[in-house]
């Protein structure tokens, strides 16, 4: 016998609230990461060493938004620090 739909309603509400909370945490986490990368060249250097694919997405999103030259400035600063 299939379960009663009325008994599944509280479970569905709880699951939907959980999904919404997880999505909000993801959005705010992504915004926080973007803000920190946008604010600090040192943090971008750390991201270059640890997670270069995330840094590449940051550069591409800036270029898509019309902000050019961030990648070049970072590479010039990092190469000057190595000398």
UniProtKB/TrEMBL annotation:
Transmembrane segments: 15-34
Keyword field: Membrane, Transmembrane, Transmembrane helix
InterPro entries in alphabetical order: CEBPZOS (IPR037764)
Keyword Transmembrane helix: yes
PANTHER family xref list: PROTEIN CEBPZOS
Protein name: Protein CEBPZOS-like
Encoding gene per record: LOC117537835
């Amino acid at each position: 016998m299939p379960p009663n739909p009325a008994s599944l309603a509280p479970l569905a509400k709880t699951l939907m609230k959980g999904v919404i909370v997880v999505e909000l945490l993801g959005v705010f986490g992504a915004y926080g990461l973007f803000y920190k990368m946008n604010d600090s060249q040192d943090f971008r250097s750390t991201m270059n060493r640890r997670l270069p694919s995330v840094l590449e997405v940051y550069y591409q999103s800036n270029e898509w938004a019309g902000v050019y030259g961030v990648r070049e400035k970072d590479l010039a600063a990092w190469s000057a620090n190595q000398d």
